[in-house]
Design a protein that fits this description.
Elements (H helix, E strand, L loop, with lengths): L8 H18 L5 E5 L2 H8 L7 H15 L3 E5 L6 H10 L16 H11 L1
Parallel strand pairs: 1-2
Helix pairs in contact: 1-3
C-alpha cells in the first residue's frame, strides 16, 4: 500500500479483478473472458513465482478462482482498446464506495458509439 487505506495502481487493478471474478463466479457464470490492460497484472497471473506483497495476495486469490473455473480466461489488451474501462475507472473516483454498473451508464454512450463506428 502506498498510504494507509490506499492501494497502488497494481494493487488496485488486482483487487478489482478479484472482485469481478468473485462476483461473476457467485452469479453462476461458467464462461468468462476478462480483458485487462495492465501488463503487470496479466504477466503476474501467468507466473509461477510467489509474491509475498499485497499485490501477490490478490494475484494468488485470482489464480485460485481462475483454477476453479476452466472457462474463465484473462487476457491482456492494449490500453487504447480499453478506453471505456478507463473512463469508468476515472468516474469511480467520484463515488464514496464501490459501484457496479450492470448496464453501460449514459455518460459513456458517446465513447461507445465512437468505438463501435470505428470497428464497423
Amino acid at each position: 500500500m502506498t498510504r494507509q487505506g490506499l492501494l497502488s495502481v497494481d494493487e488496485g487493478e488486482a483487487w478489482a479483478l478479484l472482485q469481478a471474478l468473485t462476483w461473476l463466479s457467485d452469479l453462476g457464470f461458467d464462461k468468462l473472458e476478462v480483458e485487462v490492460d495492465s501488463s503487470n497484472l496479466s504477466n503476474d497471473l501467468r507466473k509461477e513465482a510467489i509474491d509475498l506483497s499485497i499485490f501477490g495476495d490478490y494475484i494468488t486469490a485470482c489464480k485460485s478462482l481462475l483454477s476453479q473455473h476452466s472457462f474463465f480466461t484473462v487476457s491482456w489488451v492494449n490500453q487504447n482498446a480499453n478506453q471505456v474501462a478507463h473512463y469508468l475507472a476515472r468516474a469511480s473516483c467520484h463515488y464514496d464506495s464501490p459501484y457496479i454498473w450492470v448496464e453501460p451508464p449514459k455518460f459513456v454512450d458517446g465513447l461507445l458509439e465512437s468505438i463501435c463506428s470505428c470497428n464497423a
